[in-house]
């Protein structure tokens, strides 16, 4: 049993400033530890079985003498009752840590997206992440704790309803996004071990190679010489969807860019449409010179109260993904068999995105415009890093002449001889 020390007063304890251990009395084993740097803290020295424990009780004077003695008495009572206070505290800490790990995949997804949202290229990219995980992952593993998700769960997720084979590209994105969420959970201490959604050395041994499964087809595109016939037919169609499709073709833009066009982005006097970076696939602002037919189309449109959208739906929202496709299908269905708008290579009805291919084919086969001007018009990213580093301008004026010739071709048709991009006349 420890030797009983003289019981020091609070004033005597305050005067203990030299480095060392001082028994303060009142409770056997209670000591004040003074370090070489002047720090002072309470230590209770006890023997539990054959082991000696030094239990910290906090710093002095934050923990005054009276409180230190009360803590020491309570701990000694535990020892007398056969309880090891150190092991009890460690077990409580481990239990608390285990509770922090009980995070479901849906909860982890929400926290991950909140943290990473600023890293996404634009709002649409963030929405795609949310949609993919909510549509495919949540029904299968959403309520499951992240520390319980195993390889079998990921396999079920990716093969459910034949997803890996039927929608390979979607399944690939899903796998990668689930892997990122689980990586985040591991880094945060919510799970341990290998990531079950990892491809290399894991799922690649369980699932077919997606690059060999997926059929990489092209978007059905209209043959070049069919453009005037299609555009004349389209001009006779009514509705916001038809006008949006016409504008999409005249500007050679992506469907999402045209559907989201806002009046605030368009300068009719300068005949210029500036799409902000957050609406572009490459995350870079894109300026589009507007041909006279494109400007005339815009001037003929009504302005809708309560929205800045150029082509709003009847509810004042952006048009749906299928609106423009439905216009094309109605046009194709209105024609006799064999006279519709079909891609001779795929046999399918032409697609909205396919008109960008038609534009590129026209520019490459029927004009003398350099490829870099055509690629700039399509807002394609320059894959050559050296070339990208040196390019400063966006070839706007050269593209202005290009878009004028494209609009003229769409309206009238043209031969290679009379499409001359070198002329300087205003479009």
TrEMBL record:
What are the protein's UniProt keywords?
DNA integration, DNA recombination, DNA-binding
Its domain of life? Answer: Bacteria
Residue ranges of every copy of the Tyr recombinase domain listed in the record:
217-403
**Residue intervals passing through the bilayer:** none
Gene Ontology MF: a single term: DNA binding
Might you name a Gene Ontology BP term for this protein?
Answer: DNA recombination
| SUPFAM superfamilies, per database record | DNA breaking-rejoining enzymes
UniProt record similarity statement:
Belongs to the 'phage' integrase family.
Protein name per the record: Integrase
Species per Swiss-Prot/TrEMBL record: Halomonas urumqiensis
């Amino acid at each position: 049993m420890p030797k009983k020390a003289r019981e020091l007063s609070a004033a005597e304890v305050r005067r203990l400033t030299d480095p060392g251990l001082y028994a303060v009395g009142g409770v056997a084993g209670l000591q004040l530890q003074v370090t070489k740097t002047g720090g002072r803290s309470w230590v209770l020295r006890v023997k539990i079985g054959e082991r000696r424990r030094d239990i910290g009780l906090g710093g002095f004077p934050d923990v005054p003498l009276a409180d230190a003695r009360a803590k020491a008495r309570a701990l000694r009572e535990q020892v007398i009752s056969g309880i090891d206070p150190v092991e009890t505290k460690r077990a409580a800490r481990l239990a608390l840590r285990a509770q922090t790990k009980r995070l479901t995949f849906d909860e982890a997804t929400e926290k991950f997206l909140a943290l990473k949202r600023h890293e996404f290229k634009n709002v649409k990219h963030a929405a795609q992440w949310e949609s993919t995980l909510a549509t495919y992952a949540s029904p299968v593993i959403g309520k499951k704790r992240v520390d319980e998700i195993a390889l079998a769960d990921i396999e079920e997720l990716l093969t459910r309803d034949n997803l890996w084979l039927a929608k390979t590209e979607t399944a690939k994105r899903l796998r990668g996004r689930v892997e990122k969420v689980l990586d985040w959970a591991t880094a945060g201490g919510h799970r341990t071990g290998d990531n079950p959604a990892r491809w290399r050395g894991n799922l690649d041994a369980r699932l077919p190679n997606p690059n060999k499964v997926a059929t990489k087809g092209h978007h059905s595109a209209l043959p070049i010489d069919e453009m005037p016939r299609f555009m004349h037919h389209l001009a006779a169609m009514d509705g916001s969807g038809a006008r949006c499709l016409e504008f999409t073709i005249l500007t050679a833009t992506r469907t999402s860019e045209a559907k989201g066009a806002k009046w605030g982005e368009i300068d009719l006097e300068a005949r210029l449409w500036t799409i902000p970076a957050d609406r572009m696939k490459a995350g870079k602002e894109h300026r589009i010179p507007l041909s006279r037919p494109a400007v005339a189309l815009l001037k003929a449109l009504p302005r809708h109260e309560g929205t800045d959208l150029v082509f709003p739906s009847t509810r004042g929202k952006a048009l749906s993904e299928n609106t423009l496709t439905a216009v094309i299908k109605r046009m194709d269905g209105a024609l006799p068999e064999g006279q519709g708008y079909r891609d001779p290579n795929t046999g399918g009805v032409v697609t909205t995105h396919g008109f960008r291919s038609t534009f590129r084919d026209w520019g490459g086969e029927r004009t003398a415009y350099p490829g870099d001007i055509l690629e700039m018009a399509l807002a394609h990213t320059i894959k050559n890093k050296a070339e990208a580093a040196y390019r400063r301008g966006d070839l706007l004026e050269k593209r202005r002449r290009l878009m004028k010739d494209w609009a003229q071709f769409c309206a009238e048709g043209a031969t290679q001889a009379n499409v001359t991009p070198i002329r300087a006349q205003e479009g």
